[in-house]
Amino acid sequence: MTSNNNDTDYIIDDNEDENNTIHISSQLSSKMIVELMDEYPDLKKITCPPSLYKRISKKYLEVLEELGIEVEIKYNWGTRKKYKDEMKEEVINLIKEGEDPSKIAEKFNLPVKTIYYLKNTKKDEKISIKLGKKSKYSDATITKIKNLAKSGISPKKISKQEKIPLRTVYYIINKK
Length: 176
Description:
The chain is α/β, with parallel strands linked by helices. It is 45% helix and 9% strand.
């Protein structure tokens, strides 16, 4: 099982025994060491990429050795999944139902940009998001206004007859 903290600084290594090994992907600090010790009291090994290992303070390495924690270089090629498949499916289903992307983002505590990204992860189907405000007027009313305009009735008369602002009547008539 892959697990990461809020800042995605480390993950539980799937290939190692239980939760005794952590792979770090950012600079090791005293704060991170304390957090790791609190969260994983049985921690035996920390792995990190070579570039990161070179920058770890010798004092940190000595302290970790005294605590019985081995620090080892390990290549961790590839990226891990950032979003669970279940969450992606739920986001996509909400989009298909016509839910507003900003409301979906708020529900999952994600940026709106991420909702658009997750929408595009479904390669086999094209999912569209309806943008902009929903029309104040029903499709039937819009069709009626367009038909009245086509039949030669002036926008001013349509406006009075339907009790819709003249500017809106012009907008509906000219909208394709």
